[in-house]
Task: inverse folding
């Protein structure tokens, strides 16, 4: 009987041991998730528009219709992320749905510690693997976990792909090979950038073959001519591949054909931002770990890790450099660490490998140390706009800068101080890596130095992540003061009936993006002057002579029939009943949106162009249009309340009939002209007797001015006058 009872007891002990072994890794995940959840809770609203709004639109559309769309227009879902978050948009309350998505994103992104740990365990012991997992899970880019973007899913998934690829190369088992291929093929559906993962698989396989014993034995017989021939063959293959890719990718063609230098410079910026963010030493040690150490014992696991890591760093590095170079020609010059963050797990595992083995390649250390020092001491100091981007609160595409940005904000760090600090860290890293060789026989001292360094590295990363989260929280709180509570004021009044947002002279789209995110009833966004953009269609409406609004060529089929409309200041007047107002902050002023229950079909009573939200006329001057109605009076009030030394300016005011040309209102037959003047500190009013039906008024200020030329406060708009129109059927104050 005792013999029969003993096996279960043995199995129970084994299970307990395994559970105890899992406790440290589980603890890392739990503590990390807890920290990130607090940060997500503190991020009260999205602000990285339009990425976050675009994914919100796609997932909301999937939740409502099963198909991806942006503002009602069909659109590719781009990735599986909108499908993952769509289920949460079934929640009626926007705030609750937003919170649920943030917390799920946190749990997903924090899960990066698991594939990183298991990949590291192929090469190092448990303690070193925990260091790698903790480091990869604490990088500043983990602050993306509270954003509604793809990174919370893409970052851990990429680490999982690295693990599966390395495992397949190590074991050669069919199941792992199939898993590596499947994971790589699926990667682009997680995020478009992860199309490089299949490339990683292919390059890793090449490196695995190249580094095999058979290949080394074969290369040992090569002559100098053989090596030259091999080099020429590789270069030729690269040229052919580049030509083929250029034929299918315009971005690749632009970057590789005309902007090779930008690839090097801007790819270096991204690498430098990553190095700074993760604490410099892991970047240097991670690269050095890719070089075999003379006399090290052969290990298939280490060799396959190096093959996978080298392939990953090359593939993601090339992608980042090419994308940054292309963006500099098509959009803006940016530091794109956001696209390179995926190699951080590989660098931390490489660091763990070097620390645990206490051996590093001399060639690798010289090359990695020189490159790292160049990036953090020189390249980032001369990065575009500001050294180390310390002139901005948070650089959304490169959260690695966050620690020095917050250091500047709260501790008074200067770019020169940061430069010397990073140089000192770089030199210390070199010293730590060579210490085991220099101090042979003093193993305890070396162990303490490596342990202290490892703890300091994780602490630097946690600090950087907290700094990025602090910047994110601060910007979100600012956005909340822009929108004002209650955020969902449109939904509360419309009960999710279809609503259109109509604006003009939108110099800052952030208020519109915020109100659109927090109010699902806003299904269309439009502006009269094209100043509102995406994500999604934002074209202006067409007009009939009576002011009816429609899309396309068919007035009946394209007629606007929205239940409500949100009017933006200063002079959009839709036909209907005003049912609410809501304040928001723009340009240092408190303005108000107006919510109108619209007549059917939707119709414009009057509108104007060329007036900023603060009431100043723009460089394009101003038109006022009234589409229908009785005869009456138009009060034109204009002034220059500030004492700018511009001298008197002629003001030309023209009244004419309204006509629709190419579906837009224009001034037709001139009925009256008025030539006035305006000077600083003057206010004037002109009353125009206007005819029944449609009419147009054009106000031209001959001499405009730029406020910054006089007060140096940064307002570089070209302004005319403070201008306001008001139509009445009777002239209430004829003496004015």
Result:
């Amino acid at each position: 009987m005792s013999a029969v009872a003993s096996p279960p007891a043995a199995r129970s002990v084994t299970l307990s041991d395994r559970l105890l072994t899992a406790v440290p890794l589980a603890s890392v995940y739990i503590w990390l998730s807890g920290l990130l959840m607090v940060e997500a809770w503190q991020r009260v609203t999205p602000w990285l528009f339009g990425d976050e709004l675009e994914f919100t639109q796609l997932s909301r559309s999937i939740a409502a219709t099963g198909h991806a769309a942006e503002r009602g227009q069909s659109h590719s879902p781009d990735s599986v992320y909108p499908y993952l978050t769509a289920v949460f948009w079934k929640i009626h309350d926007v705030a609750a749905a937003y919170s649920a998505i943030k917390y799920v994103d946190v749990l997903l992104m924090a899960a990066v510690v698991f594939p990183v740990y298991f990949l590291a365990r192929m090469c190092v012991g448990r303690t070193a693997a925990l260091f790698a997992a903790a480091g990869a899970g604490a990088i500043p880019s983990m602050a993306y976990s509270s954003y509604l973007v793809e990174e919370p899913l893409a970052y851990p998934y990429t680490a999982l792909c690295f693990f599966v690829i390395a495992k397949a190369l190590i074991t050669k088992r069919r199941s792992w090979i199939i898993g590596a291929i499947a994971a790589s093929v699926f990667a682009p559906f997680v995020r478009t950038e992860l199309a490089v993962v299949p490339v990683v698989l292919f390059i890793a396989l090449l490196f695995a073959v190249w580094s095999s014993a058979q290949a080394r034995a074969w290369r040992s017989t090569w002559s100098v001519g053989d090596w030259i021939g091999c080099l020429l063959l590789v270069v030729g293959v690269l040229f052919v591949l580049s030509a083929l890719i250029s034929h299918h990718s315009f971005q690749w063609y632009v970057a590789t054909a005309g902007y090779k230098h930008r690839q090097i410079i801007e790819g270096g910026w991204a690498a430098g931002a990553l190095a700074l963010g993760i604490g410099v030493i892991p970047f240097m040690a991670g690269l050095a770990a890719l070089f075999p150490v003379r006399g090290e014992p052969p290990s298939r696991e280490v060799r396959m890790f190096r093959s996978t890591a080298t392939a990953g760093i090359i593939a993601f590095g090339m992608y980042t450099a090419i994308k940054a170079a292309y963006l500099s020609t098509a959009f803006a010059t940016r530091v794109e660490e956001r696209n390179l963050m995926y190699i951080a797990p590989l660098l931390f595992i490489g660091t763990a490998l070097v620390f645990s083995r206490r051996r590093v390649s001399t060639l690798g250390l010289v090359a990695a140390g020189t490159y790292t020092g160049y990036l953090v001491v020189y390249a980032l100091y001369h990065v575009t706009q500001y050294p180390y981007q310390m002139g901005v609160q948070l650089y959304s595409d490169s959260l690695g800068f966050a620690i020095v940005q917050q250091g500047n904000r709260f501790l008074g760090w200067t770019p020169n101080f940061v430069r010397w600090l990073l140089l000192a860290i770089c030199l210390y890293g070199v010293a730590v890596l060579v210490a085991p060789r220099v101090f042979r026989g003093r193993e305890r001292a070396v162990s303490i130095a490596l342990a202290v360094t490892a703890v300091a590295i994780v602490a630097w990363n946690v600090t950087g992540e907290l700094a990025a989260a602090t910047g994110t929280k601060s910007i979100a709180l600012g956005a909340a003061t822009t929108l004002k509570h209650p955020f969902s004021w449109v939904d509360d009044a419309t009960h999710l009936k279809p609503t259109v947002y109509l604006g003009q002279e939108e110099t800052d789209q952030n208020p519109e993006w915020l109100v659109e995110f927090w109010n699902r009833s806003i299904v269309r966004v439009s502006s009269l002057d094209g100043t509102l953009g995406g994500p999604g269609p934002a074209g202006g409406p067409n007009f009939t002579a009576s002011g009816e609004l429609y899309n396309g060529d068919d007035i009946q089929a394209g007629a606007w029939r929205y239940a409500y409309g949100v009017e933006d200041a200063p002079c959009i007047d839709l036909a209907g009943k005003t049912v609410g107002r809501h304040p928001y902050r723009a340009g240092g002023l408190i303005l108000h949106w107006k919510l109108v229950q619209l007549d059917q079909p939707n119709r414009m009573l009057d509108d104007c162009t060329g007036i900023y939200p603060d009431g100043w006329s723009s460089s394009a001057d101003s038109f006022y249009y009234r589409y229908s109605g009785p005869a009456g009076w138009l009060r034109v009030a204009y002034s220059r309340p500030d004492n700018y030394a511009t001298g008197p300016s002629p003001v030309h005011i023209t009244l004419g009939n309204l006509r629709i040309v190419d579906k837009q209102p224009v001034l037709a037959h001139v009925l009256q002209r008025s030539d006035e003047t305006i000077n600083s500190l003057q206010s004037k009013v002109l009353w125009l007797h206007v005819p029944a039906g449609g009419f147009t008024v054009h106000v031209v200020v001959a001499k405009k001015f730029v406020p910054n030329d006089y007060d140096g406060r940064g307002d570089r708009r070209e302004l005319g006058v403070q201008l306001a129109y008001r139509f009445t059927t009777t002239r209430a104050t004829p003496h004015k």
About this structure: Residues 1-10 have pLDDT under 50 and may be disordered.
